[in-house]
Design brief:
Layout: H1 2-25, H2 34-50, H3 57-66, H4 73-81, H5 88-97
Helix pairs in contact: 1-2
Length: 98
Amino acid sequence: MKFVEERSQTTDKSLAGTLMATLTTMKFDGSRGMHEHVIEMSSIVARLKSLRMSVDENFLVQFIINSLPPKYGPFQMNYNTMKDKLNANEFHGVLVYE
């Protein structure tokens, strides 16, 4: 029983590492909509949470910003100068509208 438990923890750590790598290196390439892109990134955060690794909402927003191509530069600059930061859902709405 202990072997199965240790193996499960190793698998979880490996999956968490893979998910974090995916989340931090993901790029929006326009092959699908912005909504789908943000939903996929949010889904990765939810999977990490199920593995007891929480990703702060501000980090998720920053990961999304970092995933945007250069043509979103003005949007990024505008967001970064805002006094009040948006939560992930608000940011999602503004980005999809943009």
